[in-house]
Amino acid sequence: PDSPLPPPGIFPVFTSQHPRQPIDSPTTIVSLIMTSVVAPITNLQDLVSEEERIAARNAVLHLSKKVGQHHPRLIAKVLAGNQPHPFVKLDGNDYGDEGVRYIATALKGNTGVQGIDLSSNKITNLGAKKLAESIEDNKALLSLRLEDNPIQDEGVQAIADTLRKNSTLTSLHLTSCPFTTIGVRALASALEENNSLQVLILSGVPCGDDGAVGLGRSLATNTSLRVISLYDCKIGDKGGNAILAGLKRNKESQVMNINLRRNEIAQDIVTQIYEIAKGKRTVYKSSQDGAGEKGMDPEVVRILDEREKALREREEALLKMQQELSGKTVELQTKEKEMEKEAKDREKELEKNRKKLDKERERGEGSSWSLFKHRAKVGDEYVCMVVGDNLADKNQFLGLFTSMVGQHTSTGAERSADRVVSGQVKVDSKISVLTLMNTSGDDKNSRIRSLQYEQAQLVVIVFSLTDIVSFEDVEFQWLSEIRFVNQKLPIMLVGVNAHLRAAVPSPTEVSTDMGSALATRIGAAGYFEVSNVEGIASYQKAIESMVKELKKKKK
User: Fold this and answer.
1) Cα 265 to Cα 274: distance, rounded to the nearest angstrom
2) CA 290 – CA 458 distance, rounded (Å)
3) pTM for the predicted model, two decimal places
């Protein structure tokens, strides 16, 4: 609420085909605004083609993807893949300079990330310098948020030096960073040379009159800035007059919105500054005679008036959305606390089960759960993890295994997300005991999954052949998570629901060639497609291949 609203067109619209090409038409898909609020798509049917509907769906899913409390090294590995990530939210993780070092390394030369939020991460001058170095030659990053970090003048100076060389960054947020007039003047000096930055947020930065004088000097020549927030920056009449003089002197200025609230500037100075900004975004009609060289074509005036009206309606809608989101903050915080409590309770329950299993093992009592903690010691017993986006897909895989092994099956755990199935499998005339452990796909259980990976001898990644998003997450989430824990753990790729796929796969479905290509690319030990119509026949091959791979690894 303390930041001004940006004018339209500042941030480009991202699609999977053209990640940095703006779309100025009714088919606009997703716009990133300076408040990091993603405007929802209320009616995908308004998009003119099937291709754009799919691009919209995928873009929204990527933007809303929860990164979770993973180690910054894992986040860096994901970003290093150069997959499209329109806006990556990593705020409030307390990574510090050491953690941000991994992120900075991943951003160097990165072509997939267009926006990143590292607010409230305890980043100091050292971390700011690393980030500045990494984005100096970055041609993809458009938005950088470093709000509420203890960055001082030295770190801001490094960012200013980068602005002199970087020609693509359009938005920089430094709200509540404790740098002084020195840092503000360094930024102002860089803006005299930079022609790409369009949004600069310095709310809560004590720049004072001296800093405002430097900004006023840069506003006299800069032609790219459109939105500036100097909310509560301790600016008086001297600084206000400097900003006013700069805007008056620069006839090519693009400043459309400037926030000077909570400063000690005389009202008449503020009014003049706001009028200049308003003039950049308001189209005045022709004089009453409508003739002569000064007159404007009435049709042009009508079109411009319609655009101005649309802009006002958009600003009102965004304000309403912000108010609604603010009203839900307490509710979301309460739910977050409940989720944290539930995760802790589950960890306690898991620890209790481990102790119970240890006692059973000491007494010689067999249990499929004992395989969860203790890797099999016998040559023909193996433990495999089953991971994937959708619980229904994983349950289908486990259900087919149960049908296959029949009476030799034993199960453990009441929750289907923690289900353990163990059974005897005959391969090459030899019987092996295979245990499959189901897992929860929630981000809050990532630490529990890390412990399970250490106990497994093979991981099966399950996705639906009718859900392209679950297929994309094989690389985006599951492969990165597995490789972070164990680089050498064998992986099998299994696609379910083959019987639901059309003869010619639609854009939302996964073809056999796509699945095989992914398996080859990630180095999977095998790729199989399972159909409920074929039943055990299609499933038998996958299980036999898993056992053979485990035997090969043991040798």
Assistant:
1) 13
2) 78
3) 0.45
